[in-house]
Amino acid sequence: MSALGMEGSEEAQTPSGEALSLPWDRFSSWLHCICVVGFDLELGQTVEAMYPSHAKLTDKEKTSICYLSFPDSNSGCLGDTQFCFRFRQSTGRKSSLHCVLDQVDRDSPVYLKKDPSCFYGYVYFRQVRDKTLKRGYFQKSLVLISKLPYINFFHTVVKQIAPEYFERNDPCLEAACSDIDRWPAPVPGKTLHLPIMGLVVKVRIPTKHDKPGTTQLVDMTQQTDAHISVALPTIHEVDLFRCFSPVFFHIQLLWELVLLGEPLVVMAPSPSQSSETVLALVGCISPLKYCSDFRPYFTIHDSEFKEYTTRTQAPPSVIFGVTNPFFAKTLQHWPHIIRIGDVKLAGDVPKQVKVKKLKTLKTLDSKPGVYSSYKPYLNKDEEIIKQLQKGIQQKRPTEAQNAILRRHFLELTQSFIIPLERYVASLMPLLKSISAWKSPPQPKPFSQEEFMKTLEKTGPQLTSRLKGDWIGLYRHFLRSPNFDGWFRSRRKEMMQKLEALQLEALCNEDLLIWVQKHTEVESVDLVLKLKNKLAFAQREHLPVGVDTLQKLQGQVDTIIQELPEDLREILLKTNSS
Amino acid sequence: MALRELKVCLLGDTGVGKSSIVWRFVEDSFDPNINPTIGASFMTKTVQYQNELHKFLIWDTAGQERFRALAPMYYRGSTAAIIAYDITKEETFSTLKNWVKELRQHGPPNIVVAIAGNKCDLNDVREVLEKDAKDYADSINAVFVETSAKNAININELFLEISKRIPSANTSATSGKGFKLRRHSSETEQRCC
């Protein structure tokens, strides 16, 4: 037997080499905390336990977690249920981002970045008859609270922890937390092997450089025993086909509604259906980021309930999922409603159905379907519908159906976004306009008319066979929060690129010659400006090479040495501050 | 070369040196002031055995009583269990026997059991005779070695013995074929000749 030595850095094992991280540092790069929510006969739902015990949640946040961790009483979920919710974090909470995490977040795709204003809750709820309890039922939820939208991954993790916890109590959570606290940080592009309570979960964290739609994880090992290890093909994607199957004749319409940030509510019989449908909707415009608020599971106790359901103003741009029948009345005025009935049997071929008029949605027992008076800009893609229907008849595996649908959405979104990307790239100033001695030029402003003109020759018709009013769709999109969010991040990237190019231009100048031709005051001014630029480059992670930064720093140091001693000292001091 | 993942759990009383055995095997180091394990710690090491790569996924469980109930999560799906005791403490050997019973009742049916009598460098204060432990191990068809994580005695051997007892993935495939051949023996024989 010959030892092959240590495993690669992918492993979560070398505590010796990683002595730099404090206890719970690693844990907090994945989770904020783990909560146990139970039912108290006098108090109602309460947070019974929280790990780690020093984790901070405001009372308001705790209340949100309590209500959102239990299904609405009417839905009568017996047995085990899993779902996900999202809630706003209290204002005034310090964003205590670990420095490592900034690095982590920077290389994440936009739709996988940490949520700056919200927490996700990944719930495992158990409700079983128990005569020994006063209430007659055992009702408890184990909830993972995190800022990371790794839906599929945390779904797997909570499923591993919760059933054991319900059987074996507190030592179980201690063990789980101790496991998680030894995980390596979620660094984009890395394949991680994450041990959790006897199971190894293998995942790959996507990066923003990944080609959308490519396979994310390749597992090299032969055997797959579900008790030993599990390789997740994706950390965040939900099964689009399963989620959309109750409404799959309307996928075109739904894609447009999500793209345009229209107010949309999903009424479902259970929190698991409501949350996965909302997540599927938000994910169907990937790689575009859905920029408005969304709540996979929303209850009447939510702190935003009044804000979102008021009739005094137009419904906000938000997607939420509800199960409480009360909403059918409260949200009657909403422009777009998806009603999902109880899950159909597999292999059942849904019949062609029309979009229903909103007027008909009055009562709780309204039929499942999409209620909206929206008329899609694009024609329906009959081919994808036929392809999926054929799949159902032929009992094609749901993974394959999901892959087909996912590719369809991806191609559609890309066809839509490529002309915008191309136009925005043309807003970048010419390279020759960048000067070492002037602040970088601004990108040209976005002109709707200029953009529309480009569509004639280089519009979506180049990549999509879908006909319809693309122009109308773009006009509408340009007014939507999703455009705003997308353009902001593109503009930021351009500004950073321009800053970086200017730094490079500076770097290629002989600053010493400049200094010799200028006054002392001007030299000092230059040094201070350069220092600011260097600090900015590091803080904002400008896309500029380390060698450029080093060379520039070297130039700054040389200039300082040229100055009289008294000035030199002052400038060196500002260096250290 | 085929890579096989083999789940291995370490069981045994608190303080017998389970974590030290794993550290010696994986890192080839020893720390006398190691902290008690919480829940279980996890490490991996890949070794070559004949024409296969054995990747040991090692779950080193906590010996403390309050974590006792968690053990099934770690021996579930395990190919092998290493049960360790301290040769200088008689009672740790009794605990070992209880683990064997639990594994027989609730563990995976074909789990390879390996018994490690650790701290064999402390022969002067020995309480458990090597022969007694060996006889017991033989009676339950378990691997047996006395080890010292501190002095690096018999640690690699322990895992080698486990590797030896694991049926090769290829053999099981071939034996399946062999079975088939025997069933249609006459026909096959004619074709072969």
TrEMBL record, chain A:
Pfam family, one: Avl9
GO molecular function: guanyl-nucleotide exchange factor activity
Domain UDENN: 32-497
A GO cellular component entry from the record: recycling endosome
Record InterPro entries: ABL9/DENND6_dom, DENND6, Tripartite_DENN
Superkingdom of this protein's organism: Eukaryota
Family: Belongs to the DENND6 family.
Protein's name in the database: UDENN domain-containing protein
UniProtKB/TrEMBL annotation, chain B:
Subcellular location: Cytoplasmic vesicle, Phagosome membrane; Early endosome
One annotated Gene Ontology cellular component of this protein: phagocytic vesicle membrane
UniProt GO MF annotations: GTP binding; GTPase activity
Keywords, ordered alphabetically: Cytoplasmic vesicle, Endosome, GTP-binding, Lipoprotein, Membrane, Nucleotide-binding, Prenylation
The keyword Iron is annotated on this UniProt entry: no
Signal peptide span: none
A Pfam family per the record: Ras
Membrane topology per record: Lipid-anchor
Keyword 4Fe-4S: no
SMART domains in UniProt: RAB (SM00175), RAN (SM00176), RAS (SM00173), RHO (SM00174)
Region (Disordered): 171-193
Biased composition (Basic and acidic residues): 184-193
Domain of life: Eukaryota
Family: Belongs to the small GTPase superfamily. Rab family.
Stated name of the protein: Ras-related protein Rab-22A
Organism: Pyxicephalus adspersus (African bullfrog)
